Amino acid sequence: MATDAQSIDTVNTNAKTTDTQVYELRPDWRIHLPAYVIGVLLVPLLGLGLWIIYRYRQKWLGMRYLVTNNEVIHQADGAGTPIPLHEIISCDVRFTGLSSRFGLGTIHIRHVNGTRDLIGISDPEPVAVLIERAAESERERLKMREEIERTRPQHPSGTLERKNELVGLWQQGLISEEDYQQELRKFEGN
Q1: Which of 23, 28, 42, 175 has its CA 20 to 30 A from that of 134?
Q2: Share of the chain residues as helix, strand and coil, in percent rounded to the nearest 5
Q3: What is the pTM of this model?
Q4: CA–CA separation, 65 vs 103, rounded Å?
């Protein structure tokens, strides 16, 4: 994947049972280049240009995207809205205007509840492919988990062991037929 080192950082966090990979994406500063140019041109007008430059710089610094093993999170000014990977329908890459000249694009994510745009991503095609592959893997993992849950026995854990012990006691003659039938009805009630 040929991406800018500043746009993707990989962070490994060790959880108790699995490793969670987090890819952090930040919009490239060049996405706000027109605002910076306008800000520089308006500097002589009582600091209005400085305010514009400051405002877009803060907006750029406060925005980031996190792609984890099970969700994509769009964070703006610390607040994040997660999109579970299994809900992602498709990822498209769009290039518009001046930003396409800099190799910047927008990843348009369609998901079950709507759409989300990851703007200002440097070299967005490999990132979109990464998100689509992760979404497909997550759907397959959830499908396998559902299959395991469906084939798992419906009785509580330890029930079969207790029932086998009861049968053994009855076969050895250590409990009477009446007691055996009474205890067996308790198991059927579970």
Answers
A1: 28
A2: 45, 30, 25
A3: 0.61
A4: 18
